Amino acid sequence: MKQILIILLMAFIPLLSHAQTEQQITQTIDEHAMCRVQDSTTFAQCASYNIKNSPLGYIESLLTPGAAAFVNVVGSALTWKEISVEPSENTTGFNYIFDITDSLTAILCEVFLTLTVMFQIFRMTYTQHQGQFVLSHGFGYAFINYAMIFFLLVCGGLYALVWGAVFVSVLFVAYIMMMTAPSLAETTVNDPAAYQQRAEAYATEQIGPIFDSMVHIADNNDRMRLEMYNLNLRNKGISVEFVDTAFSNCLKNIKADADTFFGGTLSDGEAKRSQKCAIAAGYTSFDPGSVSYSGFESTINDALIELNNQARIYQYEYKKNLCANSLKVDGKREALKDSMIAYQDCLNVDSNSIPVLGEGNIVSFLPESNVDSQSLRDIKDNAIKAFAKSFAVVGVQFGENMEKSSLVFNVNAISFMLDLVTQEVGAPKWRTDVKSELSKISSISSESLSAYRNAVGLNEAESAKLTSDLSGGLSNIKFIDRDKSLSIALGESFWSNKDDMEHHLLSAANLLGGNMFDNAGFTGEDCFQTDNTCQVPYVNQMAASTSSNLMYAQAVFEIIVSLKGVHILLEQTMPNSPFLKIIELAIHFLQLALGFSFIRLIAGLSPIFVLGGMMLATVAGALFMTLGYKIDLLKSAFPSHENLTKPVQAGVSIASIFSASLWLIISLPVMFAVFLLVLGIYGFAMVLVGYWATAMGVSFIGENGQFINSIINLSLKIFIFQLLDTVFIIKLSLMAGNLVTKLQSFFTYNLRNEGLGEQIQSQIQQQMQKITRAI
How far apart are CA 407 and CA 495, in angstroms? Predict the structure, then answer.
């Protein structure tokens, strides 16, 4: 019943206020112009404005002269600003209630004090005649306590103390929010650690095909040279002799230029060297492929040049490994040493493609290689990691250059908190910019060689032979299928690789889920055992999760609507179709997913529900705190024998009043600080949530690399991750609420627990606990 009355009073208070005069309207406009965007210099002048525009604006009438004086003294001390709050001129609303109660308690207190004085005089007279009167410490303290009671009840001291503390708390938390708003706003945009790791992850994922293409380009270049060298070979008994031509002499005498970027295209020094020598040998063109970058970041240019250099190293080591493995089978190294076919792939050349010749210019095969498939993977992985680290520098710079967040200081603490956990300004824009920059990198690697001989001066037979050798390209190579071998070595068929397959499946789920797993740093892998797979979540993880949950709910809802449309169409055209049952099952599953997404959304906002609700409950509890302490003081003032001889209860009540007032002063800032603590813990703890999800998901089902098995395994990981995430944030919010409740009980040790604030706090925690148990 108490709650209903208070809610009704709050609802009707705005209707009781008087219309503003023209002068008041002008003053309001002036204040708004100065105070709508505040800084540390204007905060003190805007103190009254902040109180009026806070959630307590509807009880601003309680800002009496005494309360205003208290706010000015204490508020100035806490904020180090000269606060000058004017008492409210509004005499409506709660003032009516407190005027009545103050009048009644003042009359009663006068009666009690009169009776007390008479009783004390009678007692002193009586005990003095009996020779027993002693002016003990307790007797003196009794008069001090009664003086305090008289001040708090009759002079309005309790009223000014409690409500002054409430308004000080509003200004104090507003000052803290104003001072922290710039850094909090920047946190929603700039998150260097997360940006660095995301940039590395995106670059690692996107640059792999570019590296593969570079290897193919290097391989095309190498095969073109070997094709040309095939014209230099002559049988000499059981061996093969190498006879120099214009092409081979050119390669020996010309040094490759350094790789550079020209017009957005990577100018490969080795490819240009081949082109020059092909022209010198009478060929008009040679195009092994190209890599382009249409951006303007010099760091990326340099990183691509180094990546191309590593691709050439990879190609050379890969060719040595391939030939070594092919030639050791069935003694082919000895059996084919006089065969022209095998030299098309395995002619012994150095890393600059210069033939390594023996005595009498006799050629040989590439020597045995100590490079295995793992060494090749290491070369590729290290090259991609090096590029990713260089690209991450650009990614972090993008974050620093982004326009700052629009998050601004708001005197409404709950509204400010809500803005903070829902405003994901930085991550989406940064993600778009970074992926857009990566998309500017492209490559083309031809699978057919395009070197053409100028037929002038050649007879028909020579021209036909050269055309057969050069224009046919890779299809003419018979000793080794280099296309297939190189594709397998590079791992281009990811469905044969379990790790790559799960990575692509997680990427698809991440896309559907509004980047929720990317935001949380969840990779589906054990980041405590696997190198460099652990990503840090965004610092403002709450905002990222809220954004992801909304996008996820929207995506699931759209799929449900689409499936329902298909179901209706099939039902009308093919009522006996077996797909109807499958679609119905899918719709039911998606409806569950949609419901769960709403639970996750509510869970993500649970810190607002718990701590924001406790803020309102604390202020509402001040109403009952005032009434409750008045009753306690009246009891202490009653002229009973216990109060006269043992004034301990009165002292405890007075001490409790000042302690509770101290809590009111610091309560809102404490709750706001706990809220920020929850945000920080939640962000950093997401790594553990991801680890637990991965460990539990793997324990349910083995990993044998099969497609369906990988889908089930990854689905379990994703579901467990979402479930743990939801329970974790709710539990974290409840722990924060319990922490605040413990602090409150410490300060308000004599506060009547049947107050509205305590009941609201209890109800909030009970509801959140029910949600946790349901999950």
Answer: 45
Nearest by Cα to 538 from 680, 408, 691: 680
The rounded Cα 257 to chain-centroid distance in angstroms is: 45
Q: Nearest 5°: phi and psi at 349?
A: -130, 155
φ, ψ (nearest 5 deg) of residue 425? -80, -45
Please give the average per-residue pLDDT across 13-35, as a whole number. Answer: 48
Q: How far apart are the first and last CA of the chain?
A: 32
Q: pLDDT tens digit string along 94-152? A: 666 666 666 666 677 677 767 766 766 666 665 554 544 444 444 445 556 666 776 77
Q: CB burial class (10 A; 0-12, 13-18, 19+) of residue 676?
A: middle
CB neighbour class for 732 (10 Å; exposed up to 12, middle 13-18, buried from 19): buried
109-137: buried (b, 16+ CB within 10 Å) or exposed (e) per residue? beebbeebeeebeebeeeeeeeeeeeeee
Residue 613 reports pLDDT greater than 50:
yes
- Region of 590 on the Ramachandran plot (φ > 0 left; ψ -120 to 50 alpha; else beta): alpha
Is pLDDT of 368 > 60? Answer: yes
DSSP 479: S
Distance of CA 467 to the CA centre of its chain: 59
Query: Could you read off the pLDDT of 233-262 as tens digits, one per residue?
Result: 888 878 889 999 889 999 989 888 899 998
- Mean pLDDT on 578-595: 85
The pair of three-digit structure tokens given for residue 330, joined into one six-digit string: 């069935």
Determine which of 5-14, 259-268, 589-598 has the lowest per-residue pLDDT on average.
5-14
| 342 CB neighbour count, 10 Å cutoff | 22
* DSSP one-letter code for 57: G
Q: How far apart are CA 328 and CA 323, in angstroms?
A: 8
Q: Cα–Cα distances in Å, from 606 out to 49, 366, 612?
A: 30, 67, 9
List the strands of the sheet with 260-262, edge to edge. Answer: 260-262, 265-267, 290-293, 441-444
Is the pLDDT reported for residue 313 higher than 60?
yes
Helix 579-604 and helix 541-573: axis angle, to 10°?
160
- Per DSSP, the residues of 484-541 read HHHHHHHT--GGG-HHHHHHHHHHHHHHHTTTHHHHHT--SS-TTTSTT---PPPTTH
| Helix residue ranges, H only, 39-153 | 47-52, 65-79, 94-129, 137-153
Determine the angle formed by the axes of helices 137-153 and 648-700, rounding to 10 degrees: 70
| Per-residue pLDDT, 197 | 84
pLDDT over 90 (residue 37):
no
Give the ranges where 230-297 is alpha helix by DSSP (H): 246-253, 269-280
Which has the closest alpha carbon to 340: 452, 242, 272, 462? 242
Instruction: Provide the phi-psi class of 521: left if phi over 0, else alpha when psi is between -120 and 50, else beta.
Output: left
Residue 641 has a CB neighbour count (10 Å cut-off) of: 9
